[in-house]
Amino acid sequence: MNKTRATRPCTKNGEVDWIGSLPDEVLTHILSFLSTKEAVQTCVLSKRWKNTWANVPILDIKHEDFLVFMGDNSSGDSDEEGDDCSGDSDEEWRIAAARFERFMTGFLDNRAPTNLDRVCCMRYIYRFEPDASVGWLDRVALLMPQLIDIMIISGNSLDVPDLVFSCASLQHLSMTLYTLQNTIIKPVSINLPSLKILKLSQVELHDDFLQKLFMGCPSLETLILRGSDLYFSGICSEVLKELALYNCHLYEQMEISCPTLVSLCMMINIKRGGV
C-alpha cells in the first residue's frame, strides 16, 4: 500500500520553507513581536504572508517609524508625489504625520474583524496640523482591547474621545498627553468595569472626573498621576490599593479616603489647600 508524504512549501531554490510551513496561529504569534509597521511589511514576502498581519491582535505604532531623513527612503513607504524629504526638519515631520495617518487608517480598514489585545501608540501633532485629532482612538476602543498605552505630544489642545472611557474589556489604561497646557479630561461618562490600572500624565483633572471614575470603575486598584493639575477635593474609593501622585500641582484642599490602600506615594506642589 502506497503512502503519500505531506509536502512542505519550498523556495525557488528547492529548499524547504520551514517558516512558511508553520500554522497560521504560529506565524501570527511571531509577528506579534514586531512593530505593527514591520508586521504589515511582511505581506510582500509571499502569498502566504499577504494577510497574516491582519490577524495580529496587537497595535504597536510610533511616529518615528514613519520618519525619513534627507531623502532616505529606506523605510519602504510608498509616498505620494512630493513626499521626498530634503533635510528640512518641519517638512520631515509633516510627511511623517501624513504617513502615520494614512497607515493608521489603512490598518484599521484592512485588518481582520477580530479584537485587539493591546494598543501601544506614540504620536506627535505639530503646529502645522491645527485640525489633527486622535479620533482613531474611537475605532481602536471598539476593538475591545485589554490594554491601551498612548503618548501624544502636541502643540495644540486635545479632545480625548469618550469611547476610550466606555470600553468594557479595558483592564489597563495609560495615557500621556504633552500639550502647551495640560489637557482637561472630561468624558461625558465613564464605564470601565474591567479597569484595574489607570495611569494619567500631563493632564488636568476636576472633581467631576474623579466622581465618574470611581463610580464607573468598580475594579480600579491602581491610580497613578504624573505631572498633572489637580482641581479635586477628594480621592474616595473602597477598592483602591495603590495611589501615586508624582510632580502634580494641587489647587484644592484634598481628602484621601481609601480604606483598602496598601501603597501611597505623593510628590506634589501645593498651590492652594492641602492634604
Q: What tags apply to this protein structure?
A:
275 residues, alpha/beta, eleven-stranded parallel β-sheet, two-stranded parallel sheet, 13 strands, 19% helix, 25% strand, globular, disordered N terminus
H/E order of the elements?
HHEHEHEEEEEHEEEEEE
Biggest sheet details: 11 strands, parallel
List the quaternary state of the chains: single chain
Large-scale geometry: globular
Number of strands: 13
What do the pLDDT scores average to?
Answer: 83
What is the count of helical runs? 5
Radius of gyration: 23 Å
Protein name: F-box domain containing protein
Pfam families: F-box, LRR_At5g56370
Organism: Carex littledalei
Give a quick rundown of the structure:
The protein is α/β, with parallel strands linked by helices and 275 residues long. It has helices at 24-31, 36-41, 89-110, 136-141, 207-216; strands at residues 58-62, 118-125, 147-154, 172-178, 183-184, 197-201, 203-206, 222-226, 229-231, 234-236, 242-250, 255-257, 263-270.
Structural description of this entry:
By secondary structure, the chain is of the alpha/beta class. The chain has a domain at 148-275. 19% of the residues lie in helices and 25% in strands. The protein contains five helices and 13 strands. The chain has helices at residues 24-31, 36-41, 89-110, 136-141, 207-216; strands at residues 58-62, 118-125, 147-154, 172-178, 183-184, 197-201, 203-206, 222-226, 229-231, 234-236, 242-250, 255-257, 263-270. The strands form two sheets. Strands 1, 2, 3, 4, 5, 6, 7, 8, 9, 11 and 13 form an eleven-stranded parallel sheet that branches. Strands 10-12 form a two-stranded parallel ribbon. Helix 4 (136-141) links the parallel strand 2 (118-125) and strand 3. The longest helix is centred in the middle third of the chain and has 22 residues, at 89-110. Residues 16-51 form the F-box domain. It comes from Carex littledalei. This is F-box domain containing protein. Pfam families: F-box, LRR_At5g56370.
